[in-house]
Fold this protein.
Amino acid sequence: MAFTIKFNEEKNQLLKATRDISFEDVIYYIKEGKALDDLTHPSKKHPHQRLYVIEIKEYIYAVPYVIDLEKNEIFLKTIYPSRVLIKHYRKGGGK
């Protein structure tokens, strides 16, 4: 089942300005099948969220998202670099 991927444009502009990354970057990697993983969100505060793990520009990013099955869409919440995920996916930080 193919989902439409959506995001908040204001948040996207903020991410571009502060982290030099965008939701468009993430969507490209997802559509190309280059996401490293798709996990249940580890935080108990967000049991309804999932987490894409994506490597962009030689860094590992966490991308929390929610699925709306009624609308057949995924909504990307934010993008943040994760040292924990780097250690896990790069075996101690090295490729």
